[in-house]
Amino acid sequence: MRRRAVEVGLVGLAMALGTWFGGWWSIPPLAAVWQLLRKSEPAWLAGLAAMCAWCGLLLMEPLPPLVRLTGRLSGVLHLPPGGALLVTLGYAGLLAWCAARLARAVRR
């Protein structure tokens, strides 16, 4: 269990660095490669790693501007306060999960 948590953390770090240097489109290839290398791991772990990566990147931003931005964006999208953050993290998780599931299907 501990090994799996460390592995997800390292994959999350790789996804955070990939996003920092390459943008959001680095998430699907990293998730697919991880799924191909670790055949027995469930695909939702790739999604969890991506969500942790983007959460870490968001926490690097100064808090007051981030709170103002998410408040305004949540209002524009007709979401409850903080809903924009959940949508952002969900998007990262969904990208990684879909890529991992696709890699698993292609491998078979």
Alpha plus pi helix count: 5
Please state the CA-atom Rg, rounded to the nearest Å.
15 Å
Mean pLDDT score, rounded? 92
Beginning-to-end CA distance, first to last residue: 26 Å
Range of helix content: over 70%
Succession of helices and strands: HHHHH
| Structure summary, number of beta strands | 0
User: Which class best fits the helix and strand makeup?
Assistant: mainly alpha
Largest sheet: none
The shape, in one word, is elongated
Contiguous uncertain segments of 5+ residues = none
Beta-strand content estimate: under 5%
Walk me through the structure.
It is built from 5 helices and no strands. It is mainly alpha-helical. It is elongated. The two termini are 26 Å apart.
List the keywords.
single chain; 108 residues; elongated; mainly alpha
Question: What topology emerges from the helices and strands here?
Answer:
Layout: H1 2-22, H2 27-37, H3 44-59, H4 63-76, H5 83-107
Helix pairs in contact: 1-2, 1-3, 2-5, 3-5
Provide a concise account of the structure shown.
This protein is mainly alpha-helical. The protein is 81% helix and 0% strand.
